[in-house]
Amino acid sequence: MSKVEIYDTTLRDGCQGEGISFSRDDKLKILKCLDGFRVDYVEGGWPGSNPKDIDFFQAAKDVPLAHAKLVAFASTCRPGKAPEDDASLQALVKAETEVVTIFGKAWKLHVTEVFRTTIEENLRMIEESARFLHSEGREVIYDAEHFFDGYRDDPSYAMETLAAASRGGASRLVLCDTNGGMLPGAVGNIVSEIKARFPGIDLGIHTHNDSGLATANSLQAIERGAVHVQGTFNGFGERCGNADLSNIIPNLILKMGRELSITRKDLGQLTHVARYICAIANQTFPENLPYVGQMAFAHKGGVHVNSVLKQSATYEHVEPDLVGNSRRILISELSGKANLQHLAHAEGIDLEKNPQAAQQAVAEIKQLENEGYVFEGAEASSTLIILKHLGILPEFFELVRYRVAVEHRTTGGTFSEATVKIQVRGEEHLAVGEGVGPVDALDAALRSAIRQFYPELDHIVLNDYRVRIINAVAGTHARVCVFIETKDKEQDSTWGTVGAGENIIEASWSALKDSILYGLWRKAQPTGDGCLTERG
Q1: Which whole number is the average pLDDT over 262-285?
Q2: CATH 3.20.20.70 fits 5-280, yes or no
Q3: 316, 352, 456, 460 — which has fewest CB within 10 A?
Q4: How many C-alpha atoms does 39 have within 13 Å on its Cβ side?
Q5: pLDDT tens profile 334-343
Q6: How confident is the model at residue 163, as a pLDDT?
Q7: Distance, CA of 105 to CA of 130 (rounded, Å)
Q8: Architecture of domain 349-394+454-536 in this structure
Q9: How many Å apart are CA 240 and CA 62, to the nearest integer?
Q10: Angle (CA) 458 459 464, round 5°
Q11: What percent of the chain has pLDDT over 70?
């Protein structure tokens, strides 16, 4: 089996996705990342289309690449134009990349209705453009746009366009499912026919995801002889996006046993690369993505958890660490003892010696979930429930009462103030705090009341606050679920806590209290193995 080339077009085709725009520096960062991941080709953009891409290619000349080849992209020359007189092709030459990709029309509909030219002129444009660029010392990749639609319309003409590119010196002929409407069986059959027609040239595949089949179509094409696959990370791209390299690459290596420049060792960086590119794009990461999403190896049902902890292959098709991901055991009303035991083990808590406490903790979590609590992502609150039923939760402080006031003044501004009375070590302490809102004020007041006893609190800060409406039809009487994420600045770690109820302040207090209790408990754990045992 031939080695498969990976061609990334995140910086060009991916930019055509709604809401995605990379700056020049963004593109340079991603280029370096993809080079480090050993991607074979990185398509940087269309230098003749906008000043940003011209600037990028100029700046990229100073970026040393260890593996990847930077690619400049453009159309064939325009109807009636000689390639050497075409501004777009001249821009390709000026970009000074070793490799260039040009696209041309394989569907008569586009030739006659979009280019408004003859089918003969289209063949000239393809062949002469490829020949011109080849004569300039460039490796030429030809993208046959709308190839599959064109092939279904007129197979003979679609193949003529490929022949024209080949005569012009294109080293790879890439078959594009530009509309994303093909099915895998049809893609496979057509690729086999083209492979037989052009036995001495490397075929590539470029698919879009409008039917949800971009990955399947890409893999089918490779099964039938394609040795070059184009796509974007995280499936970025126009409309429904492009083929997603973050799942094509592991499927090729782990499932199909194909040789890539990206090794199994490199594959351990896959999750990082996908998330890094998404962060630079300023997009919310789709956590349900195969292989690289947080949900990809998340287990919630008690039966599933019990099985996967005994033998991971029961509910995982690959080991998470192969792609740089990790297993997650979720806590919810579907949890069993196995879920809690996994969490306890991760926290260094010996839960197996007290099965009754485990059962009680499971029962309490199930009851609280029925009342509107959501423990997924709020493992810190679950840990506190375990500690409580084991009888080893330290009493760092006890609430006596709190009061919150929000005042709006006609002179301008809204002010929030909270008063908290806390009992610590048998003594009551009253403190007042102000904040931008009632929860911020409560947090300030609580910290003020107990800081003298727990100075380590200064390293524990609120990182995020979210509210979810549970039963919206109840209107102002609806129950709410509050989630708080807290960060330990000293240890650079985060945890989540949850509260729920009809009163948003009470729900917020519950999550806030848990966030501080858990943080203090973590700080109080001994160094070493950190394993706790039940104490009377």
Answers
A1: 93
A2: yes
A3: 352
A4: 30
A5: 667 777 888 8
A6: 97
A7: 13
A8: 2-Layer Sandwich (3.30)
A9: 34
A10: 105
A11: 97
Note whether 169 and 136 are within 8 A (CB).
Answer: no
Q: Does residue 535 register a pLDDT over 70? A: no
Residues of the chain with CATH 3.20.20.70: 5-280
pLDDT of residue 534: 34
SS3 246: helix
Q: From CA 11, how far away is CA 403, in angstroms rounded?
A: 53
Tokens coding 62 = 């100073």
Q: Which two tokens stand for residue 135?
A: 């004569």
Task: Write out pLDDT tens, residues 174-192.
Answer: 999 999 999 999 999 999 9
Where, residue-wise, is CATH 3.30.160.340 in the chain? 349-394+454-536
- Which residue type is seen at 234? N
Question: Which helix (DSSP H) or strand (DSSP E) does residue 217 occupy?
Answer: helix 214-223
CA separation, residue 429 to residues 164, 418, 425, 460, 472 (Å): 85, 14, 10, 21, 38
Residues 415, 424: contact at Cβ < 8 Å?
no
Distance, in Å, from the CA atom of 315 to the CA atom of 510, rounded to the nearest integer, reads 35
Would the pLDDT of 219 be above 90? Answer: yes
Distances (CA, A) of 440 to 155, 288, 445, 460: 67, 32, 9, 14
| pTM reported for the whole predicted model | 0.76
Contact 208, 243 (CB under 8 A): yes
| Contact by Cβ (8 Å): 8, 42 | yes
* Percent of the chain as helix, strand, coil, to the nearest 5: 45, 20, 35
Question: At residue 198, does pLDDT exceed 70?
Answer: yes
| Mean pLDDT of all residues belonging to the chain | 91
Helices and strands of the chain, counted as H and E runs: 18, 16
Nearest alpha-carbon partner for 56 in 87, 15, 85, 86: 15
Query: Are β-strands 493-501 and 298-299 bridged in parallel, bridged antiparallel, or unpaired?
Result: unpaired
Place 532 in a pLDDT band, splitting at 50, 70 and 90: very low
Return d(Cα 401, Cα 395) in angstroms, integer: 16
Q: What fold characterizes domain 397-444?
A: Double Stranded RNA Binding Domain (3.30.160)
For position 498, what pLDDT does the model report? 93
| 137 φ, ψ (degrees, to nearest 5) | 85, 15
